[in-house]
Design a protein that fits this description.
The chain has about 80 residues and is mainly alpha-helical. It has four helices and no strands.
Length: about 80
């Protein structure tokens, strides 16, 4: 698990009150974590703050799993440099 994945997993566990043993790359936000709109807003805000990136709703909605979110965050961080 790399740094981005570790940091994102910590956010997922905190925001979604998820069992750390059940959070992995294939974990789906809606189906597995029961994400709702307000929870997702809190999640996005935490991600933007943690990684110093800005996202938009249409891009965020494409991230269905933690692995997809990790790849997206890495891409946004690379673009920021």
């Amino acid at each position: 698990m790399d740094d981005v994945e570790k940091r994102l997993t910590a956010i997922v566990i905190d925001v979604f009150k998820a069992d750390p043993k059940k959070v992995k790359g294939s974990t789906r936000f809606i189906e597995d974590l029961g994400a709702r709109s307000l929870t997702m807003i809190a999640f996005v805000a935490a991600v933007e703050g943690e990684f110093g990136i800005t996202t938009n709703a249409s891009e965020n909605s494409k991230n269905k799993t933690i692995a997809q979110a990790v790849a997206y965050i890495k891409k946004k961080m690379k673009e920021k440099k």
